[in-house]
Amino acid sequence: MTTQQLQDQIQAKKSFLCIGLDVDLNKIPEHLLQTEDPIFEFNKAIIDVTHDLCVSYKPNTAFYEAYGIKGWQSLEKTINYINEKYPEIFTIADAKRGDIGNTSSMYARAFFNDLDFDSVTVAPYMGKDSVEPFLAFEDKHTIMLALTSNEGAFDFQTQNVHGKELYKVVLETSKSWKNAHNLMYVVGATKAEYFTEIRKIVPDSFLLVPGVGAQGGSLAEVCKYGMSKNVGLLINSSRGIIYASNGTDFAEKAREEALKLQQEMEGILVSSFKFQV
Amino acid sequence: MTTQQLQDQIQAKKSFLCIGLDVDLNKIPEHLLQTEDPIFEFNKAIIDVTHDLCVSYKPNTAFYEAYGIKGWQSLEKTINYINEKYPEIFTIADAKRGDIGNTSSMYARAFFNDLDFDSVTVAPYMGKDSVEPFLAFEDKHTIMLALTSNEGAFDFQTQNVHGKELYKVVLETSKSWKNAHNLMYVVGATKAEYFTEIRKIVPDSFLLVPGVGAQGGSLAEVCKYGMSKNVGLLINSSRGIIYASNGTDFAEKAREEALKLQQEMEGILVSSFKFQV
């Protein structure tokens, strides 16, 4: 998917919501556990009731790997279902991979070719040659960790490197990498005040923003400081939507939560001078 | 597996060799491609002829994920085969994972419970709460990237943070984390001169050292600067051993290459005052 197609979808749906499909068998409705593939059944139900309210789904691979081969089957069925039924959706494999060049190429192949995700998240610690194999795929996107939403973000990411924080060095350095136009970045919503600085470095890049909702970030704050002239944000919510209820009404309640966020986003898009809806 | 058991194995085998099982279907002998599970058949043959020469096997998950569900089946069969037939072997899932706390817990569960690896490699960028869920497992080991063997290591890892390189900050900071005694570190062999400094920070920790062989690092140099009083090194070789031949003699040739490294290691252990063999 091209960036333009993602932007068109945002305009059409008046939403820049990404729904995180982090499915824990201990948290999903009990009646689904009787089905052959509870994780897929759960995802399918969530997707069917929310696809018009969001522009992206983001399964986190950890939640699938934890169930071994059965988990990978659920992941494969989920991505195939989205790609077949809702091809307009921007799909993110939240995998946070990164390794030496020939190994990163294998990961890129796993997520871009074998599973056919539109994008994958990667970690920056190993530098340029660990990320460029992902960037080599045209019309695929590589979403690199910059400033994450967890407490540990302050351990290294905000440490001062030659007068500026490490995450800024990461952002700046990555702009010189081959096919850097395929880069997006992860920036946590819990640190909204940082967006102003980040936008000075990457004014136009899409930012994937976790941390709204369960982790305490504010959508309005993020938009105020983080929006680009083309929106440039994908706001992720996982637990707040998919676990809104663990009864038989889970899908309905998930839609209600997704709708609240979509409506808030529509309001922001309409009131913003940056964007016509 | 406890650290003591790993040390005992090193003493018994006079080896601190780790063999990387990075299996690429384009590189293995053609006759194996006719079998039902070529990756597993290849691994099984390599393991059967080298298990007495090495103390550890390290499948890199990228090479399995690239083949989707079939790849995960090969990974599962490989780890099960090692655990059943050669339970003394220290197994490493080279996965370079790391995510927010509840997600890292799922990864830990995937590799420590579901697949029953003795250890997993992790990336440090997201800090303490992304690594501690792995450290919580007793008798399991978490091998964190410190200074990697690739070119990109110089992008961020060696950047100066408050007067010292980032990888040193990573090493120092991690020592204060809960269950830090379960930490080991990845340090690339291509930077042997760095080991002196690293041993000042983590004098006793095990270091997993990639980069000997294909990537150009010298075993003698690494041992000279990197050995602790209990050896404290796991030297990895992947391509140099497993792809020594791509004919029907691949296993035999792999053993020859592993034997060369084991003998060099035995020589170092015998000549070293640090260790009695």
From TrEMBL, chains A, B:
Keywords: Decarboxylase, Lyase, Pyrimidine biosynthesis. Transmembrane segments: none annotated. Its EC number is 4.1.1.23. SUPFAM superfamilies: Ribulose-phoshate binding barrel. GO terms for biological process: 'de novo' pyrimidine nucleobase biosynthetic process; 'de novo' UMP biosynthetic process. The keyword Lyase applies. The active site is at K96. GO terms for molecular function: orotidine-5'-phosphate decarboxylase activity. InterPro entries: Aldolase_TIM, OMPdecase_type-2, OMPdeCOase_dom, RibuloseP-bd_barrel. Signal peptide: none annotated. It catalyses: orotidine 5'-phosphate + H(+) = UMP + CO2. Residues 16-254 form the Orotidine 5'-phosphate decarboxylase domain. Pfam families: OMPdecase. Pathway: Pyrimidine metabolism; UMP biosynthesis via de novo pathway; UMP from orotate: step 2/2. Belongs to the OMP decarboxylase family. Type 2 subfamily. This is Orotidine 5'-phosphate decarboxylase. The gene is pyrF.
